[in-house]
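Lab notes, practical 5.
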Amino acid sequence: MNKPGFPHKYLFKEVSEKTRLSNIRAGVCIHWGCARPARTGRRDCETCKCRKHRLKHPYKYAFRTVRQSARKRSIPFLLTFEEFKSFCEKTGYLSKKGKEFTDLTIDRIDPSKPYQADNIRVLTWIENCSHLVENMTDPAEPIARALAKFACGNEEKFKAYLKEADRVLAQVEILQKTRDQENEENPF
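Output from the prediction step:
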């Protein structure tokens, strides 16, 4: 249950009986170092309960996380839990997922298709990022799309945002050239 590198190791640290009883009387979570209010009728807080559940059911947690990410981005998610679990076991995704450059992510082979068993693969973060950038024609396009999506999904404003993003990008390039010239003239 105690996974190496798990950031919430305090869940496993022993608490003295005196401290445990004191926390129960105070209505505070019984886990070491946690001072959040305990759930009604329980001895631990909602956060510690969720973290313990995550440890106990890692496949369910990862499945829900990927599904929620797909929903946020309005991408259909057609994977069943069993398909996801077998995918994780084949690829080792669960043990190697994370937020570092060499950690694994789930990528759709064909971006126009939904998340389904025959359309997913694992890539490292760096491979996934370079995969996104290689098809990009205009460096300001993702900025403009993000701004247009943020503005209530109004695609009509996309051209205006693209023009503004190009202007900002040009200013950034000018600033970068100026700094490079200053660094060449004055290396210290």
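Observations recorded by the TA: The chain has eight helices and two strands. The chain has a mean pLDDT of 80.
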